[in-house]
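Regression check, adenosine-5'-triphosphate case 354:
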Amino acid sequence: MRMNAGYLRLCGISRKIGNFELRNISLGVERGEYFVILGPSGAGKTLLLETIAGLQRVDEGETWIGEINITHWPPEKRQFGFVYQDCALFPHLNVKDNIAFGLKVRRLYSRIVQKELDDIVDLLGISHLLERYPATLSGGEKQRVALARALVMKPRVLLLDEPLSALDVPMREALRDELKRLHRLTGMLMIHVTHDFTEAMLLADRAAVIVDGALAQVGYPDEIFNRPQSRAVAEFVGTQNVFQSKVINQNGKKFVQFGKSQLAVETDLEGTVNFSFRPEDVVLSSSRHPVNCLRGVVDFIARQGLFTRVVVEVEGVGVVALLASNNGSMYALNPGTPVFCVIPPEVINVFPDK
Ligand SMILES: Nc1ncnc2c1ncn2[C@@H]1O[C@H](COP(=O)(O)OP(=O)(O)OP(=O)(O)O)[C@@H](O)[C@H]1O
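Current build output:
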């Protein structure tokens, strides 16, 4: 079994449930990190979070916190906070009693604890809601209460399962900023599950992508976004331009074959590989450039608000470019317009063909 560095460590965790299986997950998360678990719907993100919380038993593998093996500890002994997408507040209790519920269960409700409760309520700016009942709260207010309820217990780790996905866009953005602020102020280790890559980019110190029950990539959000290491991750982060090819060595310089053309790349890999580049990194030009320039014809244009997606057919293959809709050159493009796609070597991500 592989052991990892980190404060919270998952070592070779496997869990079969119905037809689905979490497979050999090894992961180390540091104290104070904001760690995001990303992945498409049904990838096993919630199951993984529930396994970390101790709500799901494991079939194989171990969970450690510091030097302690907590694999068989029940959830309450782990002292992890859990915030669900739908908040799961008690409908018959007002906000104050919802927040204090866990403290009362632990028989901790005293004047000292009242001070902590007041601090959390202030931190989340919800003092005006204390007498209200969950049914009268907006989605964002409910989620703030759910966060307060988890934080007042001073958890070792705060687990957040899609905490923003039930909210409308302005509320989602406000609460996303709030999470960032809470993390900065508390320094708590937070593990946040989402399928929204933008959320991950804005919140995460590091992230893991899970695909089909297995870890596909762990790293800084920037790395995952710009340097996906598998086709599945490239597709999940919206790379759109992903091709299989082979590396060609010429006088010490490396190229990948694209149809009859060759594109200069920066890579240590050899042989059969995949390469990808983001649509935002494709430059469309009416004139030929000396390096990494593919001649094509505009096939399709779709305006998507601030951005416009242009598909250029190059040697029978679609290359996708994303341009700012107010980009002057946009107005000269129509289906059938000849155009050059320029893809600088440094934006081409070459990864193994697995
Ligand atoms: N109790 C269960 N019994 C059988 N299958 C289950 C059970 N719980 C989850 N699954 C299955 O396990 C898989 C992973 O579920 P999970 O909820 O972890 O996915 P997810 O990545 O969180 O997806 P989403 O983003 O849609 O919430 C799914 O195919 C789901 O149907």
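Comparison notes: The radius of gyration is 24 Å. The mean pLDDT is 90. No diff flagged against the previous build.
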